[in-house]
Specification:
Strand content: 15-25%
CATH architecture of the largest domain: Beta Barrel
Number of domains: 5
Helix content: 40-55%
Number of helices: 26
Strand order of the largest sheet: 14-18-19-17-16-15
CATH topology of the largest domain: OB fold (Dihydrolipoamide Acetyltransferase, E2P)
Shape: globular
CATH superfamily of the largest domain: CheA-289, Domain 4
Length: about 725
């Protein structure tokens, strides 16, 4: 490469490894605002330090200088010289964004246009503000130190000699914040819970009355250390500057204010610095500063490795080839059946052994490629803490993001394609679901809302849930909008239950949003989310309770390639039922079928098993999708199980629901290659994909979650609405 000292291949490795560091920085910087523990600070410092060394090794001066500036700031935070503030976190996030721009320039081999001078200056200014002498701070309007009489001072010194610490805390609220004085009062009250407040300017009572200038100086006595205080106070939003100074060795100066009321932080700080210099106060030692090796190996360097970076496109090709092997393997089994009456026993044995061996090898190839493609879903989950933080700052809301199951593994292709739908749902949860602080307090809730993002494996699928503890979906509002948009009539609206009404949010063109912002999105509705998930052979459902919250549940296949299924036949069409949902199979005895409340059931092992006929579920839907077509040789929906004879019952389970599915014929187990549904059946509810069978026929892959929903909780009116929308 011409602009940087590395080859094209090294540039790709540089990008991948540096990008991993930036992803960890994104995650750790969000955690830093919550708790600035030493291990976290050290990890952040080392990541920036490594990036600095890597940038220097390839001659990227702008990136190296920015990293050096950030590293200097982080070193002071790590050494507890300064505390973490929202302003500092925002600047560090900007550093990460600039690093990403620099990385793109390296990969594209183009000169860097962004020199980050403004950002570097802001970081330097922040350090100057934090380290400035009080003479300059007073010039900027810092109030004088609180007065402490000699009697109280004597008592304080006794407490300090007994092992307690005395702290001077200075805080500035963000001038552009929603309620600066309320933030300072929140900080004051937090300190009251942790320490004995000796004096304060302004007082707590003044802050409660809304009196103050946007700054707070207080003196507090506690057994805590400065790092613990900083950690607790850094959780308060919209504090532009926070300084915590241990003045235990300079407490006597507070009493001198009785003789010199104009004395302020300068004298105390100077004396405190002298105490440090004299060894009376010790700061934590800095961590090791030895240089990390560059993250890109230089040309000519050879090192043994047990891992090799592989292009995702190559894995995609391997998976497609494995799919072709599966299809051909299935075809060979069909050919074996066709030739069984033409070959002698020895020939059949040889052919069977060969096909069996090929089948074993095919399965192993598929399994190994599948494992290579699997990736923890934390790959995308890690992006959300920062996103939530940014959105909360824009909206003035306080939300805790709880992430569960991030270790759940899923096919990389699935991960890449579900990132945007999940982002949209998380954004909606915060923007429209979580109430404002005032609304939550009025409703008797905690001021801080909660959004839970979770993932788990279930029945060969991955389940991603986005749950908020907000106000829930306003079903009446949804119905009114649906009527106004002409999606349903007033009569249909009156017939819909709450659950049916909230399903309408997936109808094209309907949005419950009243306000629009850059972050909430423009014109991207829930119908787009559902369509994107359905393209992945998945499904999305919504559960909500007014005043309690809302959950969106995404059900997706672990892989978009190959799944084990049970092949069945119904109405002369082959269906593939995912095997993890199948419990047992038995021949149907028509005399044992009983009607319970108008529904066919059968008594099995002391339990009543509801029955559903596959032909009745799909005949009308498939015929409607074909719009009355009569010449489709692969879609003969003409009879159903009644005309074909007694048939079989496939007992299936989804979550806690058990159901018997009546089919006309069983074709056996088979691994099938999933292909996307095409026109005209791509919108048929209950289908998740198609597959090519060994005999050349098309098999329709059933979405078992949708099948259970259609059979157990029929929503005919709603289905008609959604189909016609």
């Amino acid at each position: 490469m011409h602009n940087y000292d590395l080859t094209s291949d090294e540039a790709i490795v540089f990008f991948e490894e540096a990008n991993e560091l930036l992803e960890s920085l994104d995650r750790d910087l969000v955690a830093l605002e919550q708790s600035a523990d030493d291990a976290l600070l050290h990890r952040i410092f080392r990541a920036v330090h490594t990036l600095k060394g890597a940038a220097g090794s390839i001659g990227h001066e702008h990136m190296a200088f920015l990293a050096h500036t950030a590293e200097t700031l982080l070193a002071k935070v790590r050494n507890h010289e300064i505390g973490v503030t929202t302003r500092m976190a925002n600047l560090l996030f900007q550093v990460v964004e600039n690093f990403k721009v620099f990385l793109d320039d390296v990969v594209a081999d183009r000169p860097t246009q962004e020199n980050a001078e403004d950002l570097i200056q802001q970081i330097n200014d922040l350090q100057i503000v934090v380290e400035v002498t009080v003479e300059a701070v007073v010039t900027n309007g810092m109030p004088p130190l609180p007065l402490i009489d000699e009697r109280r001072l004597a008592l304080l010194e006794e407490e300090i000699n007994g092992g307690l610490n005395l702290f001077l805390i200075y805080a500035e609220a963000e001038p552009s914040g929603v309620a600066p004085l309320a933030r300072l009062l929140q900080l004051y009250m937090q300190m009251e819970r942790m320490a004995q407040i000796v004096a304060s300017t302004p007082s707590g009572e003044a802050l409660e009355r809304g009196e103050g200038t946007g700054t707070l100086v207080l003196v507090a006595l506690t057994d805590l250390h400065s790092a613990e205080i900083e950690s607790e106070l850094s959780n308060i939003f919209e504090i532009a500057l926070l300084r915590v100074a241990d003045i235990s060795n300079a407490a006597h100066l507070l009493g001198e204010q009785q003789r010199d009321p104009e004395m302020s932080l300068e004298a105390v700080s100077t004396d405190g610095e002298k105490a440090v210099a004299d060894g009376e106060v010790s700061l934590p030692p800095a961590g090791p500063t030895t240089s990390d090796p560059p993250i890109v190996a230089r040309r000519g360097a050879a090192q043994a490795s047990r891992t090799v970076r592989t292009n995702v496109a190559q894995l995609d090709n391997l998976m497609n080839l494995a799919g072709e092997l599966v299809t051909d393997r299935n075809r060979l089994f069909q050919i074996y059946e066709d030739l069984s009456h033409l070959l002698d026993e020895d020939q059949l044995t040889i052919l069977n052994d060969t096909i069996t061996h090929l089948s074993t090898v095919t399965d192993r190839i598929h399994d190994e490629v599948f494992k290579a493609r699997m990736q923890p879903i934390e790959y995308i989950f890690n992006k959300f803490p920062r996103f939530v933080r940014q959105l909360c700052q824009e909206l003035g809301k306080e939300v805790d993001l709880v992430v569960l199951g991030q270790e759940t593994e899923v096919d990389r292709t699935v991960i890449e394609q579900i990132a945007d739908p999940i982002l949209h749902l998380v954004r909606n949860a915060i923007y429209h679901g979580i109430e404002t602080i005032e609304e939550r307090l009025a409703a008797g809730k905690e001021a801080r809302g909660q959004v839970e993002l979770s993932a788990r494996s279930e029945e060969g699928n991955i389940i991603v849930s986005i749950t908020d503890d907000g106000k829930g979906v306003d079903a009446e509002h949804v119905k009114r909008k649906a009527v106004a948009l002409g999606l349903i009539t007033e009569k249909q609206s009156a017939l819909l239950s709450y659950n049916e009404a909230i399903e309408l949010i997936f109808a094209p063109g309907l949005s419950t949003a009243i306000t629009i912002s850059e972050l909430s999105g423009r014109g991207v509705g829930m119908d787009v989310v559902r369509n994107n998930i359905q393209r992945l052979s998945g499904s999305v459902v919504v559960y909500s309770a007014p005043g309690v919250g809302t959950t969106f549940e995404l059900r997706l296949p672990l892989t978009l390639a190959i799944i084990p299924t049970l092949l069945v036949e119904s109405c002369e069409q082959v269906f593939a039922m995912p095997l993890p949902n199948v419990i047992e199979i038995f021949k149907l005895d028509p005399t044992s079928v009983q009607l319970v409340r108008g529904r066919e059931t059968i008594y099995m092992r002391g339990e009543v098993l509801p029955l559903v006929r596959l032909s009745q579920l799909f005949e009308r839907r498939i015929m409607r999708a074909h719009n009355g077509a009569e010449n489709d040789a692969q879609m003969k929906v003409t009879g159903g199980e009644r005309a074909a004879g007694p048939g079989y019952v496939v007992s299936i389970s989804h979550r806690d629901v058990h159901l018997g599915v009546i089919v006309s014929n069983l074709l056996g187990k088979q691994d099938v290659v999933i292909k996307a549904l095409g026109y005209p059946i791509n919108n048929v509810r209950g289908l998740t994909g198609v597959t090519l069978l060994g005999d050349g026929r098309i098999g329709l892959i059933i979405d078992m979650a949708a099948l259970v929903s259609m059979a157990v909780e029929p929503k005919a009116a709603l289905e008609e609405i959604m189909q016609s929308a």
